[in-house]
């Protein structure tokens, strides 16, 4: 019995000792594995410029584990590069490492096992696959304040360089949607749209409310083309001007007309194209993209909804026919042929889709000309020689000659050379004093009257100017009613609703687009809206807030790092 008890005791001691050896083995293995995991993750990071093998060795050396790995045989880096050469443009890095050690057993040697081997194996990969990015950038007038536009340009260019340097050629496409009151698109888009209305100088769309309930953009749908016009605040004389006598178009136009200005809104050379206010579609050359960013200018109101609509449409395969047509490899192609199959479908998994939405303000408002004032003959006549207007009153079938303040049965200049009488207030004097009398004076009609169609009228004359012209015989109330019948306004409440609806769709599970949003010193309403749009709290950046000292450059840099997929694969 005593002998048996001794055997049992020895067995218990042996099993306990084996357990101790096993726990020591697992402790050392877990420590070695943890250090190795951290090491390969750091080494695979595309942002770091050191030799990945050196990074792994440095981690293990700091933990006193450097003797358990051979730098040359146990660390494999793909692609096989080192140091600065390992930075792009392949767009991925894989680091694989194996570390081995052993320790003498304390109890298991009793059974013939003198040592236990510890091995750790880890693989980390950072890779940018195919990526489609829409940069939706606010270029409204407030971006001229506090150096915002300058700072945005620096940050956006750094982002482009960061993404391009770490992506294989042909994998990364970047579209830029600059938005203000409206969004302008290049002439190359025109053949793919079904538009009504004329505008020889600018390309913008008047979207219907229902189009903000979908991310798609039906190219066959009939849409209004935004007219070249300036409809701004009818209660302010600042917008009551006429450019017709100078042969120029109105400035502060609703849709940017592509003319280069030395100072915003004042033409100096109408032959010089200004494409930096138009959408840049699916480009990959960082030099070309950065040159475009350098030329951005800021002015106008804020329409986040329109920028978002275009940005989302360029990630939706409903526009694929347009993009493939513009990337057909011909001499007239405006998009690299690499992107002929973009935008990819949401469910294909072919590309990661990213929308970066930035504003420094909040939605304001925009105007559009209503039917029937979008086309056809207007009720306004122009006499170029005399530089005078006549307007027609359908109710009385009479024409008001604004420069004379009289009604006639035809527009001034419609019967050149004919005579007409006007009453002239004349000062009369004799030996007893002076007084005023109205005397009849006969004048001869000069020049030629031309009836303006509405497209011509709005191109060179502001809506406010015409309103003031009609005030001559309609009176203030009548002229205001006329103005309200001409201009259709979309205000911030509607725009905010559109943005929220669009963001819900874009970042929803059916599409899986990542929305990063940047509130750049924006007012609370704009910041709240962009916070709502972001895919998560980590996708929202509040730049310039007192509680958050993140710069616009740091925000874009963080987005670039987030787009990459750094992960342990083994």
From TrEMBL:
Superkingdom classification of source: Bacteria
Domain Putative Flp pilus-assembly TadG-like N-terminal: 2-44
InterPro entries in the record: Tad_N (IPR028087), vWFA_dom_sf (IPR036465)
Protein name: Pilus assembly protein TadG-related protein
Source organism: Ruegeria spongiae
């Amino acid at each position: 019995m005593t002998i048996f008890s001794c055997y049992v005791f020895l067995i218990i001691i042996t099993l306990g000792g084996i357990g101790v050896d096993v726990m020591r083995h697992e402790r050392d293995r877990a420590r070695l594995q943890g250090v190795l995991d951290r090491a390969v993750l750091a080494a695979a990071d595309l942002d770091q410029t050191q030799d990945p093998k050196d990074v792994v060795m440095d981690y293990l050396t700091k933990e006193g584990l450097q003797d358990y790995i051979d730098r040359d045989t146990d660390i494999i880096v793909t692609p096989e590069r080192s140091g600065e050469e390992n930075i792009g443009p392949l767009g991925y890095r894989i680091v694989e490492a194996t570390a081995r050690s052993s320790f003498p057993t304390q109890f298991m040697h009793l059974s013939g096992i003198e040592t236990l081997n510890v091995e750790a194996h880890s693989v980390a990969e950072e890779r940018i696959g195919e990526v489609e990015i829409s940069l939706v950038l606010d270029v409204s007038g407030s971006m001229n304040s506090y150096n915002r536009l300058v700072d945005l340009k620096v940050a956006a260019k750094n982002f482009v360089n960061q993404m391009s340097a770490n992506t294989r050629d042909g994998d990364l496409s970047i579209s830029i949607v600059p938005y203000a009151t409206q969004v302008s698109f290049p002439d190359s888009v025109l053949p793919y749209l079904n538009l009504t209305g004329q505008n020889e100088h600018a390309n913008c769309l008047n979207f219907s409310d229902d189009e903000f309930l979908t991310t798609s953009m039906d190219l066959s749908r009939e849409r209004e083309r935004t007219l070249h016009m300036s409809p701004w605040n009818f209660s302010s004389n600042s917008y009551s001007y006429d450019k017709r006598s100078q042969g120029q178009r109105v400035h502060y136009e609703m849709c940017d007309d592509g003319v280069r200005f030395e100072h915003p809104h004042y033409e100096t050379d109408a032959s010089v194209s200004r494409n930096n206010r138009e959408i840049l579609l699916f480009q990959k050359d960082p030099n070309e993209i950065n040159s475009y960013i350098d030329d951005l200018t800021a002015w106008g109101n804020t329409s986040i909804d329109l920028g978002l609509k275009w940005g989302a449409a360029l990630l939706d395969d409903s526009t694929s026919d347009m993009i493939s047509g513009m990337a057909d490899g011909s001499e007239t192609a405006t998009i690299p042929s690499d992107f002929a199959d973009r935008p990819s479908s949401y469910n294909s998994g072919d590309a990661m889709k990213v929308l970066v939405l930035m504003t420094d303000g909040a939605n304001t408002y925009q105007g559009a000309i209503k039917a029937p004032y979008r086309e056809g003959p207007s009720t306004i006549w122009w006499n170029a020689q005399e530089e005078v207007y006549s307007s027609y009153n359908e109710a009385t079938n009479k024409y008001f000659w604004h420069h004379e303040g009289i009604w006639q049965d035809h527009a001034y200049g419609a019967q050149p050379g004919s005579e007409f009488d006007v009453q002239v207030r004349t000062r009369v004097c004799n030996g007893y004093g002076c007084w005023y009398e109205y005397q009849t004076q006969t004048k001869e009609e000069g020049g030629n009257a031309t009836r303006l169609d509405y497209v011509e009228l709005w191109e060179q004359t502001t809506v406010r100017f015409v309103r003031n012209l009609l005030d001559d015989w309609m009176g203030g109330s009548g002229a205001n009613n006329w103005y309200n019948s001409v201009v259709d306004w979309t205000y911030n409440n509607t725009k905010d609703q559109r943005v929220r609806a669009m963001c819900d769709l874009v970042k929803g599970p059916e599409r899986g687009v990542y929305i990063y949003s940047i509130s750049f010193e924006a007012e609370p309403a704009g910041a709240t809206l962009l916070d709502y749009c972001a895919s998560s709290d980590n996708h929202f950046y509040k730049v310039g807030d007192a509680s958050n000292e993140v710069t616009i450059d740091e925000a874009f840099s963080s987005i670039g790092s987030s787009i990459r997929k750094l992960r342990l694969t083994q």
